[in-house]
Design goal:
By secondary structure, this protein is mainly alpha-helical. The chain has one domain. It is built from 11 helices and no strands. The protein starts with 12 loop residues before the first helix and ends in an 11-residue tail after the last helix.
């Protein structure tokens, strides 16, 4: 008989305040950076939409690499990263609906804490040279989209996300529920990108992650998704269903 489905405990006390402070600081820095871009960059130039689209694409790709790494390698008992990074990924596969219980601070605090510093540095960077303006715009798209990745992921699990979010999902700007459901089919080895989802089909088509897995296994002997198998043996699989359309 399978053990009761696990979940992530909500943050409390000082950690909750840390997450809220990080979120506030990251969004404030992003607003300052955005205001400086609007006032100092000619947004009518031909390269602006290309740089912005490429930076959002980069955020989606980065989300896939992080997601694949945490899903595929390591054990939940590793020092430092085990409990903080790997355990949530393991639990998410056996109990994806638990993600919907997490509040805004718990969902976004970790990423905001990582993003606040780089965004603040970009916000303080001079915008006199062309390369500085390109970097600022690219950083705005990369960090802005990247900072929202966990929230976008959570929206992709909601049966009824907010109406504007549903629209953005339906037109392909944000990761949609149907696209993300592909990842939750065992053995959880496809569609790792969880920001816009734009990179998923191309990366899966060329076997991008499978190639890296074969190389890592050949060099280290490590077996991909071994920890996932331990969790399935402990808790079962397919018990908590992925949220679907109404």
């Amino acid at each position: 008989m399978s053990a009761p489905l696990p979940g992530i405990d909500a943050s409390t006390g000082a950690l909750r305040w840390l997450w809220l402070a990080a979120i506030g600081a990251a969004f404030a820095a992003l607003a300052v950076l955005g205001a400086r871009i609007v006032t100092r960059v000619d947004l009518g130039q031909w390269w602006v939409p290309l740089v912005f689209a490429a930076s959002v694409l980069g955020a989606d790709f980065a989300s896939g690499v992080v997601h694949w790494s945490a899903d595929t390698w390591g054990r939940d008992d590793l020092p430092v990263i085990g409990r903080r990074l790997l355990v949530p990924f393991r639990l998410h596969h056996v109990n994806p609906d638990d993600f919907l219980r997490r509040n805004f601070a718990d969902t976004n605090g970790d990423v905001a804490l990582l993003a606040a510093g780089p965004i603040a540095a970009l916000a303080m960077m001079p915008l006199d040279e062309a390369w500085q303006r390109v970097t600022a715009l690219g950083g705005f798209g990369l960090c802005g989209a990247g900072m929202l990745t966990n929230q976008i992921h959570q929206w992709a699990h909601m049966p009824s996300p907010p109406r504007p979010i549903r629209f953005l999902q339906n037109v392909g700007i944000l990761l949609g529920r149907d696209a993300h459901a592909t990842h939750h089919n065992r053995p959880y080895d496809a569609h790792y990108c969880i920001t816009t989802g734009w990179c998923n089909r191309p990366l899966d088509a060329i076997g991008f992650f499978r190639g890296f897995e074969r190389a890592i296994t050949r060099v280290t002997g490590a077996r991909p998704r071994h920890d996932d198998e331990r969790y399935e043996r402990r808790y079962g699989s397919g018990i908590a269903s992925f949220a679907t359309d109404d």
